[in-house]
Amino acid sequence: MKQTDGSPRELKKAAVLVAGSWGTALAAVLAANGHEVVMWTRSASQAAEIRDSHANTKYLPGAALPDNLTATTDMAEALKDARLVLFAAPSSAMRQVASAAAPLLDPDAVIVHAAKGFEIDSLERMSHVLAEELGRPLETIVVLSGPSHAEEVVKQLPTTVVVASEAEGYAEQAQDAFINSCFRVYTNRDVIGVEVAGAIKNIIALGAGLSDGLGFGDNAKAALLTRGLAEIGRLGQAMGANMMTFAGLAGVGDLVATCTSPHSRNWRAGSLLASGLSLDEVLAKVGMVVEGVRTTRSARSLAARYGVEMPITDQLYEVLFQNKAPREAVESLMLRDRTGEL
C-alpha cells in the first residue's frame, strides 16, 4: 500500500492500541500516508505476523499491510515518540488500555479513539474514559467515526469519515494525519453526537440483521432504520448533541453501512439470532467483539436516566437477555399504541 494523494507529509510516528480489524485498517491508512506506525497487541504471534508477514489473518484475512506498519507486545516501545496515538480497543477494555498507556504517552501527542460504545458500569462515553485515565482535558480527545467497514478501508476503497473534538485544532491534526484520496475526513465539534450515534447504531444493526434473518423484507428494514435514527436522535438530544450530526456521516451514514452489510458484526449477530442460535452461540460464531450487545444494556440504562423512549432498544434487550422470541419482539413493536411520527 502506497501513499495515495501524492502530497508530501512530515514523517511522524503513530501508535495504535490494539490490533483488531478496525485498528489494523486505520493503522494501514496512517502508514499509507507516510507515517511510521507501531501497533500494540497482547498476542506475540499476532505481533510477529504483522511484523514479519505484513498480515493480520485473524481479523483481516487476505489483506496485505504496508511495510512501514509493524507491531509489538511492548506498549512502551509502541508509544515511544508517538505523536499520534489511536485507541482502537473495544469499549469494554478502553479504560484498562488507557490506564496502562497513561504514564508512557508523550504529553503533546494527539489522542484519537475509534471505539463505538459506552462503558457498561459508568455509562460514560469513551472520550470521558480516556480523559479521566490519561489526565487530559476532555476537549483534547478526538473521536473518529462514520460509515467505514475495516474490510473495505484496508483495500483502499473510497471511504469518508468524521473526526470530532471540542477543540477544532485537535480534530484538524487528526484530519491531516488520516486524510488521503481514498480516505476522506471531515471535522465536527459535536463529540457527544458522534459518540452517541456510533454506539446506538450498533443496536439498530442487530435489529436489522434480525429482521433480514427472519425474511421480513425491505419495507421492514427501512422502517427499522428510520425509527432507529429517531431513537438515536432522542437520546443524543437529551445528552446534549447537535441534531444535525445525526443527518451526517456519523449518524445516518454509519447507520446505513452497518445495517445493510454482512461486513457488520452486529448485522451478522442479529441474523444469526434469527436462525435460532443462543446469544452465546452467536458470539462464538462471530468470533469478534459485537459492540451492540453490550451497548444494548448501556443504552437501556441511559434511556431510563434521561427519560427517553427507546422501543427498539427495549425489544432487543428482551431478545438478547430475556429470551424473548425475535418474531414476538417485532410484533410488540408493530402493535405499540398508535402515535404521530413527529
Automatic annotation (TrEMBL):
The keyword NAD applies. GO terms for cellular component: cytosol. The active site is at residue 201. NAD(+) binds at residues 150, 265. Residues 14-168 form the Glycerol-3-phosphate dehydrogenase NAD-dependent N-terminal domain. Pathway: Membrane lipid metabolism; glycerophospholipid metabolism. Its EC number is 1.1.1.94. Its main location: cytoplasm. Pfam families: NAD_Gly3P_dh_C (PF07479), NAD_Gly3P_dh_N (PF01210). NADPH binds at residues 21-22, 42, 59, 116, 150, 265, 289, 291. Transmembrane segments: none annotated. Residues 190-331 form the Glycerol-3-phosphate dehydrogenase NAD-dependent C-terminal domain. Substrate binds at residues 116, 265-266. One of its GO terms (biological process) is carbohydrate metabolic process. Keywords: Cytoplasm, Lipid biosynthesis, Lipid metabolism, NAD, NADP, Nucleotide-binding, Oxidoreductase, Phospholipid biosynthesis, Phospholipid metabolism. It catalyses: sn-glycerol 3-phosphate + NAD(+) = dihydroxyacetone phosphate + NADH + H(+); sn-glycerol 3-phosphate + NADP(+) = dihydroxyacetone phosphate + NADPH + H(+). It is found in: Cytoplasm. Belongs to the NAD-dependent glycerol-3-phosphate dehydrogenase family. Catalyzes the reduction of the glycolytic intermediate dihydroxyacetone phosphate (DHAP) to sn-glycerol 3-phosphate (G3P), the key precursor for phospholipid synthesis. PANTHER family: GLYCEROL-3-PHOSPHATE DEHYDROGENASE (PTHR11728), GLYCEROL-3-PHOSPHATE DEHYDROGENASE [NAD(+)] 2, CHLOROPLASTIC (PTHR11728:SF1). This is Glycerol-3-phosphate dehydrogenase [NAD(P)+]. It comes from Paenibacillus pasadenensis.
